[in-house]
Amino acid sequence: MTEQTHLELTKVTIDFPTDTGPFRALDDVNLKIGKGEFISLIGHSGCGKSTVLNIVAGLHQATEGGVILNGREVMEPGPERAVVFQNHSLLPWLSAYENIELGVKQVFRGTKSKREMREWIDHNLELVHMEHARDKRPDEISGGMKQRVGIARALAMQPEVLLMDEPFGALDALTRAHLQDSLMEIHAALGNTVIMITHDVDEAVLLSDRIVARPRERLALADDPQYNHYRSEVLKFLYERQKRPGESAADNAGAESKISTVEAPPTTDIPQEAMLRVVSS
Ligand SMILES: Nc1ncnc2c1ncn2[C@@H]1O[C@H](COP(=O)(O)OP(=O)(O)OP(=O)(O)O)[C@@H](O)[C@H]1O
Ligand SMILES: [Mg+2]
Q: Does residue 16 or residue 223 have the better pLDDT?
């Protein structure tokens, strides 16, 4: 993690219009993210995680507050922010290959030749083990396969900011572990800023900068007391929230819109007794 703030959410509040009046899905969310940081968002279903991601992606506009990326306000989507959507939104009339090509052309037109683009798309299909289905359309492949194409599309864009909404949700354990490892390698190589939503505590603890230090050897971590400490802190946080869904009236609104990041100190200077900081906005 660098000291410099790369991405900053300030007082982000959003009211969605509904039949019964405006619904406040987020209330005063503040988050500073350094360049190259890997952040996980965890929280209960409906608490507003996807909404945060969509605002950073530029797909929703905050009613109050806003998002600054590289010193400029985010007003619309841009190719430097690739999104892996929760509902793997691929274009239904395009093949897996063509869906990825769309993103790749947007980013690399003028810098990669046609052949280089083709090789790059194939490389990314291989990364998610989808080369065998490159010419299939979304309605011809399973949910997990669609999810993998969505991941490949985002990774192929080599985005400065990678936004992922439960990217590995529909995958079997082995594919999931393989893609988590690939993601860690890509993140280490590119140094992009990542915001990932997950309901999987182990995944959040394994991947996120603010929770656990590098290097992350899956097997070694199983016996690592610090890793297990973070893991249990995250679980405790989630379960305690669940036990008391509505505290005071103000807090009740907060419980609906609680976005939390779990922070640990940066890699190099983690003291043995480092405590997990749970930051609620
Ligand atoms: N376009 C919209 N119009 C009205 N309400 C919305 C809209 N989008 C989201 N909401 C509401 O805002 C809240 C937060 O939704 P969001 O999709 O961000 O939740 P989430 O934390 O991603 O949940 P999950 O873990 O189930 O994906 C929910 O109560 C949802 O019903
Ligand atoms: Mg969601």
A: 16
